[in-house]
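pasting for ref
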Amino acid sequence: MHPSSLLPDEDDSFSNRVIGDSVRLLGISQLDERLERYRLSQPKLEQQMLKSLRDYGQLSPVVVCQLDGSPVLVDGFKRIRAARTLRIKMAAEDLDSLVRDATQSGMSPWELLERFLALPAGHSIELAIARRIKNAGLPTTANLEAFDWEFNAKTINKASMLELASGEFIKRRDNLAIVGQSGLGKSHLIQGIARACCALGYRVRYETSATLLEELMRAAGAKSLPLALRYYRSFDLLVIDEFGFDKLERREYPESPSLMYKVVDGRNGRGSTAFFGVCLLLKADTLVPGQGEE
């Protein structure tokens, strides 16, 4: 049995490298897939494998045996097809470094295999994190590492913010509301927390109160409000920054309390919603549709 690399068919420049007496690296195009015709096609599982390989890389090896002088693929057909679809590559310098380390340290075949699989997996994880951060719609590159904790240490509890960045409140589907005066760094904090949660694998979406209401009003006008609400329900964490419903905002969007209520109510029990704003002092009934006057 040999570990096989996840190199695209046309790029097998690393193939047939021999490490020690028992390990040989193979390119995908060298595998004999004659046994594939005996395997059942399961499109749903194929999609799940594609997503797993894209997000986490190859977590377990394919199984190859030597038959009639050819490396015949015995198990791992879905992984190979997913790898071809995603065109997962390994940098030449990474493989050279791995081969050199394995030769110098006398690494066992299983240790080598673990290291070999970890290289593209790490790259895939980095790409997945970058994709989640991009899809979150964060307006800046603010992160918690760059936050000045000494600026307002009496008001901002660092330990509490770092606890939020662990994502445990999302796991519990708890909601979050943080209020304070302008200039305290609330937007920096929530974007840093959101970015950290993206790195942990959570699907996050950032909106300001105004942009969210604009999207909801546009969807309502286009008779597609249910689709918009379903979209905002799909995230593990929805961040609503600059939340306040001041007089100007409520005058511009008369239906804002009703629309915001639909978003929050639809997410209840499904995911976490975080409100950050200057003031959240509303009448008790202002988020209930059809009730309350200013």
